[in-house]
Structures are given as C-alpha cells and as structure tokens.
Amino acid sequence: EVQLVESGGGLVQPGGSLRLSCAASGFTFSSYWMSWVRQAPGKGLEWVANIKQDGSEKYYVDSVKGRFTISRDNAKNSLYLQMNSLRAEDTAVYYCARVDYDSSGYRFDYWGQGTLVTVSS
Amino acid sequence: QSVLTQPPSVSGAPGQRVTISCTGSSSNIGAGYDVHWYQQLPGTAPKLLIYGNSNRPSGVPDRFSGSKSGTSASLAITGLQAEDEADYYCQSYDSSLSGPYVVFGGGTKLTVL
Known about the structure:
A: 121 residues, mainly beta, 11 strands, 0% helix, B: 113 residues, 6-stranded mixed beta sheet, globular
C-alpha cells in the first residue's frame, strides 16, 4: 500500500524557516518524480515544487523561487521541502504527492495527509 | 486567479447529473496537455478521480466521467449521491512558463441538495 506521511509543520514567524519531510513507503520511491502541493485555508490547490527521480531536475512555482528548496534522499525514501524567508501568504496545508507521468499526462496519483504551516507573529 | 477556470459551485439533487467545466488556454489544455480531476472530501487530502482526460483509476465508480475539447474539459457525475458532496479540482500542465509547470483550477464545490 502506497503511503506518504508528512511532518515538520508548525507555527513560525515571518522571515523564519521550516523544513518539511515526507516519508514514503509501499512503492519504489526512487522511480518517481515527487511534488509538494499546498492549500491555503479555505482556498484551492497550488503546486509548489517538483523533483526528478535522481534529484537532477527541480522546478518551482514563481512565488517560492529563491526561498524554497525541494530535495530527496532515495536511500531513506524521503522527500523534503526547506522553506526560508517565510511569509504570511505561505500559510497552508502542505501535501506531499507522488507524480505519475506517462502518455496520459502528468498527475498526482497519491497524496499524503498534509502538514499545516502557519506563518504569523 | 487560477490559470484554469472552474465555476465556484454547482448543485444537484440525488440521482441527477451534474457537470463541472474547466476552461484553459492555448498554453495548457489547448496545447494538447491532458486534464486530470481530483475529489477532495471535507477535511481530507485530494484524491485522483480522472486522469488523462477520461480515464478512471481503479476503484472510481463509472458514475464519474471526463472529457476534453479544445481549450476546455468537463467532469460529469451521474446518479448523484450524498457522498459526492466535495470540492473538485481540474489540473493540467502549462508550457508558457519555464519547466514542468503544473496548474490547477480554482475548485468547484458540489452540493447535493
């Protein structure tokens, strides 16, 4: 059974940093692109970042470029999101999601339960 | 402002059929990129409902169907049930920006009357 379990969320002051983790199990982690997707309170979904299987390619939504860094450790079956210079508008539930990418497109076939990040003074 | 446009809400009575539209542009849906749909029940993580415009993952009832034409896509739900009350999101890919840029619709809240 595929499982994605996020951790690391919490309350942080504006300008602060936080590192999110996602522990993956039930599939060959090193064979999949992975992503972070966030959802602000009462709002819709927003893709945040992607990382290729071997970590050689990373992409970010414009609003987090230069502040967030996605990374992975295939030996530990883990995905990370280092968030620096946090702003109030980064407040959201952050989901770890597995990417399924083939001739039927690029989509998220499994999601974690999410971890809440609150940026406030 | 989402790249893909969805109606904020739709509603229907049990047993009825509802559709949810997802309108994009020539840099995403109109460029040939597939559309996928997610269902988010209250307080839970999103779940993949339709992929590749019209394919259902195993376990998704055939009451749910998807289609795509031009720069738009649609999700149809027939035989509406109370448990279908949820938020629905479309998702595609946009080539107007650098890298694999994933885009979502703003979401549609389905109310079962």
